[in-house]
Each structure stands twice: as C-alpha cells, then as structure tokens.
Design a protein that fits this description.
- The chain is of the alpha/beta class and about 230 residues long.
- It has one domain (about 5-225): Uracil-DNA Glycosylase, subunit E.
- Helices cover about 40% and strands about 10% of the residues.
- It has helices at about 5-15, 20-30, 70, 80-90, 130-145, 155-170, 200-205, 210-225, and strands spanning about 50, 55-60, 110-115, 150-155, 185, 190-195.
- Strand 5 (about 185) and strand 6 (about 190-195) form a beta hairpin.
- The protein is globular.
C-alpha cells in the first residue's frame, strides 16, 4: 500500500461527515447481533483492501452491517463474502477461499476490493447526500489505482452508482443496462463488468451460482491481464 493510499484510508476511517451513518454504525457496534455478541466491532468507515498496483477492482455499494462494519474489511465475515471468496480462490485471485478478519492472512492477486459508500446505511439505502459526501473518497481511490483495467460491479446499485461516477467525472454519456456478465467500455480504457450481487437471497434463488461467478471472474482476469 503506497503513502497516498495510507493517508486516504486514515482520512476515511476518521470521517464523521454523515451524522445518520455515524449514529447507525455506533448503534450496530453497541447492540451487536446474538452470534457476534462477544466480539469487538470495527465500528468505523470501512476502507478498501488490496494493492495500489491492482489491475482489477471488485466494487460493492456499501459494507454490510455485521460483515465489513464488524470486521473492518469489505466483503468479509458474512455469507456474501463466503460465496465471493470461494469464487476468487477458484480463479486464483485469492490465496484462500475465505475472508473472515483483518488478520486472516488474506492476499489478493492484482485485485482491490472496495465499496462506493464507506459506511453501512440503514436498510442498505443511502441518501443522495450521503453518496455525494462519500464520492470524493471513491474518486481518490480511482485516481490512486493507476494500473486499473477492469471493474466488476457487484449488484445493480453498485453498477448504477459506478456509471453515475463516470458521468460526473469523465463526461461518460453512453446508455448502459445492467446485464450480468456484459462488458462496457469506460473512459481511460477501463472495462466495466456487471455482476449479480452474491447475496444469500440471490444465491438461494439461483439468480447467481458459483459457476456463473467463476466464469465472470475468469473473464475479468483475462481482460485485465492478471
């Protein structure tokens, strides 16, 4: 992790700009849920994970209440992460098929994982103002990922907000639709791949399977030259 990323992450962790989100994080971290009652929650904004030289970006909307908000790492410690990391491991992007804590020995191959919003919103529904407040952090991450070639957006909301970011910051005007596995060309020769979110609901209803996700990640790996 380079100096710019370390400085950025420190700023993100100390951010309290969105009062509603700060209060919600405190509530979650204090009340906890039954199976995590004896754990100490991270309870702060969740920064990205991976190398600043990464060619692939795995992008979500926001950390989970008892996943990233509890563990301090995006897509870590919940059922969505269990599914995602089994697939990342099968495609040799991850050194292990799980992501459970900041000290679990996880390493990623030329891949960075982050969320557009760094704090979990109530009901997983951030306000326009909250997204606007946090957009500067995502913008800084994108500027620091100088080797980036491909973005995999997990879920329609993450996909839509990624497009909004490019429309605002890069005058991107193409009309796009969320179609799982479809590749779109963004400015600066960045590829964007739409993916169904690996939520328990989507997995249980067979909207997405491990086979589908592995195929998509293999495609992302290939076009990123990883």
């Amino acid at each position: 992790m380079n100096i710019k990323f370390k400085k950025l992450n420190k700023t993100i962790i100390n951010c309290h700009e969105c009062t509603r989100l700060s209060k919600y994080i405190k509530k979650i971290s204090t009340e906890k849920r039954k199976q995590n009652i004896n754990e100490t929650y991270w309870g702060k904004p969740v920064v990205g994970f991976g190398s600043s030289n990464s060619k692939l970006l795995v992008l979500g909307l926001a950390p989970a209440a008892h996943g990233g908000t509890r563990t301090g790492r995006p897509f870590t410690g919940d059922k969505s992460s269990d599914f995602l990391f089994r697939c990342l491991y099968k495609t040799e992007i991850s050194n292990q098929p799980y992501s459970v804590s900041l000290r679990d020995g996880l390493k990623l191959k030329s891949t960075y994982i982050t969320n557009i919003l760094k704090c979990v919103p109530p009901g997983d529904k951030p306000s326009i103002e909250e997204l606007s407040n946090c957009s500067k952090y995502f913008k800084s991450e994108m500027l620091n990922l100088r080797s980036l070639k491909t973005i995999v957006a997990l879920g329609r909301v993450a996909f839509d907000n990624c497009i909004k970011f490019y429309k605002k910051n890069h005058n991107f005007s193409k009309k796009v639709q969320f179609v799982h596995g479809k590749i779109y060309q963004l400015p600066n020769n960045i590829n964007l791949i739409a993916s169904y979110h690996p939520s328990p609901r989507n997995v249980n209803t067979k909207v997405i399977s491990e086979k589908m996700m592995v195929e998509l990640l293999k495609k992302a790996k290939k076009i990123s030259s990883i």
